[in-house]
Amino acid sequence: MSQMTTTEPTPLVLALQAWTVQRGEAALCEGVTLQLPAGGICHLIGANGTGKTTLLMQLAGLLPVLTGEVRYLDAETLPVQPVYVSHQLGIHPNLTVAQNLRFLLNLYGINPSDEDIDAALSWVGLAGFERISSSHLSAGQTRRITLARLYLLTPKIAPLWLLDEPFTALDVEMVARMEARLQAFAQAGGAILMTSHQQAMVANQTLDLSAYMV
Ligand SMILES: Nc1ncnc2c1ncn2[C@@H]1O[C@H](COP(=O)(O)OP(=O)(O)OP(=O)(O)O)[C@@H](O)[C@H]1O
């Protein structure tokens, strides 16, 4: 007797339909459509000012949505906020490096051990910086604190990552390490929507916002 094999469809982590990218009164893009499956790494592209950051901020709940439908894992909301890593940082200068990282992880319900913090900081090349005030770091080092959380976040904790220019201000070695992390997260069933003005070799799909400009 022959056996029938059925292939489960890959679930969509994020689906956008008829989405308007909007800042204040001004619609920047209309009718944006996206289907981002588990395992998907989507490179969000478009000229300066097209609305890439605006779209990520809307999805992160930081800017209002006036028109459009969004589904997360076929529901209206994710179990947790999407992870949003912004190039406008969000690191508190009065906290130490470890305190800032701990705060960022607490946002996703993670209460990291000291060993977790050490491992994540070591991964981004900040071993030994735990007790240093974040105000004493360079732009690239500060950027690394914002990225260190990705070391500890799995698709089960946070299935969707929204990354705004994740490779900016990073050296070549750190870019390679980040790319490997993004790939591992996607292979484990996560989904990523990311902007990058550099080539994004890790991406397996592209959303060009220029095609939707008003
Ligand atoms: N803080 C702000 N307040 C009001 N309008 C803004 C603000 N930031 C950006 N804008 C407007 O929104 C538009 C889209 O900006 P956004 O940052 O989303 O573009 P982007 O595609 O990410 O650009 P870039 O490639 O330069 O990062 C800009 O053209 C600008 O007019």
Automatic annotation (TrEMBL):
<protein>
    <submittedName>
        <fullName>Cytochrome c biogenesis heme-transporting ATPase CcmA</fullName>
    </submittedName>
</protein>
<dbReference type="InterPro" id="IPR027417">
    <property type="entry name" value="P-loop_NTPase"/>
</dbReference>
<dbReference type="InterPro" id="IPR003439">
    <property type="entry name" value="ABC_transporter-like_ATP-bd"/>
</dbReference>
<keyword id="KW-1278">Translocase</keyword>
<dbReference type="InterPro" id="IPR005895">
    <property type="entry name" value="ABC_transptr_haem_export_CcmA"/>
</dbReference>
<dbReference type="Pfam" id="PF00005">
    <property type="entry name" value="ABC_tran"/>
</dbReference>
<keyword id="KW-0201">Cytochrome c-type biogenesis</keyword>
<dbReference type="InterPro" id="IPR003593">
    <property type="entry name" value="AAA+_ATPase"/>
</dbReference>
<keyword id="KW-0813">Transport</keyword>
<keyword id="KW-0067">ATP-binding</keyword>
<keyword id="KW-0547">Nucleotide-binding</keyword>
<keyword id="KW-0472">Membrane</keyword>
<feature type="domain" description="ABC transporter">
    <location>
        <begin position="14"/>
        <end position="214"/>
    </location>
</feature>
